[in-house]
Amino acid sequence: MDEMSRQAISDDKEFCWHPFTRQSEWTAAEHEPLMLVKGEGVWLEDAEGNRYIDGNASIWTNVHGHNHPAINTAIKQQLDQVAHTSYLGFAHPKAGELARKLAGFFEGTELKRTFFSDDGSTAIECALKMAIQYRLQNQEADRTEFVAFINCYHGDTMGAASLGGVDAFFSRFRKFGFPVRFVTSVEELKALEGLERVAGVVIEPMVQGVNQIHVWPEGMLRELRDFTEEQGIFLILDEVMTGFGRTGKMFACQHEGVVPDFLCLAKGLTGGYLPMAATMVRESIYEGFLGGAERAFYYGHSYTASQLGCAAALASLEVFEQERTFENLQPKISLLQEALQEIKQGSAWVWDVRQCGMVAGIELRQQDGAPFEPAERVGEKVCVAARKHGLLTRAILDTIVVMPPLAINEDEIKLMLKAIEAAITDELGEK
Ligand SMILES: *Cc1c(COP(=O)(O)O)cnc(C)c1O
């Protein structure tokens, strides 16, 4: 290791704090953090020049690959104009153009108005606060509760975290947040008492990411939309992960022809280049905020509608057209499906494979079908082993996440699955 790498590691261990990380293990003498320094397409390179496929799209953000010339150019051109200006009290052309393009995906519907923020969590936070404020100032002050789905994940700011269904992350904070009830299905929602007190239902449509890639039953989203509409309950879709092509369509709600009341977008919005989020809202809800000062939505962040972020997002949307991303995606989705079946049949350690478009999970269990002891951290170990075979990804418990940039090609998909297979054998032995 050269002097620069040694310095980088000691800076990290002495001064930084990583997300969702046991810092005592991270900073231990024997742990050598992987320093990523370059990217090109679906490949990432570490400080020593080793190359890896970005198998989880840099935590579910990257869409068209790293170092994409069109997105790079758009950001550089914007940088030469101005990097950032306040969206509080001022406007700029790119934000309007981006909001118009987002509305264009829902043309002819009421989903039209966009409020910008920075991250998935803040996109959700906005939707929750808008929902509550709308109810308070529009003669529905009793509707102040939310319903969410068990094992869901909607982000880490307090409001978003109060919806979080993963106890290990959220239970200690739950009493400080919004009143939320959790259900496992639309049937359970229908059976709840006091639905007239519910402001909104929040769901990750089609597939829950953090819940080990849990795919919802077909038709469920449609049924949820019909029921919430009938009950006057807002449907808040968290498409932070599923948005921008991940499930094979631009937005997951399009699989079942659903238009929500709120649509929360982030991760892939800028192609995975810059932090930026959007909360789209029905025009009739927006209109509930018109009038005097007391009706304004008092919410915003310093970097709201960041000019660089908007430039990247517009470029990313253009790349979808230029590269005909969706046309090219179908054969890749089919290939991924075949490869997943192969790994399931070929390895006795693979208990289940789950897939929705280009989002997949490979669940590992003991050969008798019993889950591994969580303390063994099998999923995590398999992902570390996969690095030697040229793949970076993360597991959720013992489910290996496969969520590459949409730009991945067929050979790279095969490489990715081979790396996982080899890593499973390294950690658990043959079959
Ligand atoms: C990542 C994620 C979030 C949170 O987004 P951040 O940008 O990390 O704040 C919210 N919801 C879902 C479904 C996510 O996958």
> Number of domains in the coordinates?
2
Number of strands: 17
Radius of gyration: 22 Å
Number of helices: 15
Strand composition percent: 15-25%
Structural class: alpha/beta
CATH first level of the largest domain: Alpha Beta
Bound molecules: pyridoxal-5'-phosphate
Distance between the ends: 36 Å
Largest sheet: 7 strands, mixed
CATH superfamily of the largest domain: Type I PLP-dependent aspartate aminotransferase-like (Major domain)
- The CATH level-2 architecture of the largest domain is identified as 3-Layer(aba) Sandwich
Overall shape: globular
What's the helical proportion of residues? 25-40%
Short structural summary:
This protein is of the alpha/beta class and 431 residues long. It has helices at residues 3-15, 23-26, 57-60, 69-81, 93-104, 120-137, 158-162, 167-170, 186-191, 220-231, 283-287, 307-322, 325-346, 378-387, 410-428; strands at 36-40, 43-46, 51-54, 111-117, 145-149, 180-183, 198-203, 207-208, 214-215, 234-238, 262-265, 277-282, 350-356, 359-364, 391-392, 395-396, 399-402. The site of pyridoxal-5'-phosphate has 14 residues, from helix 6.
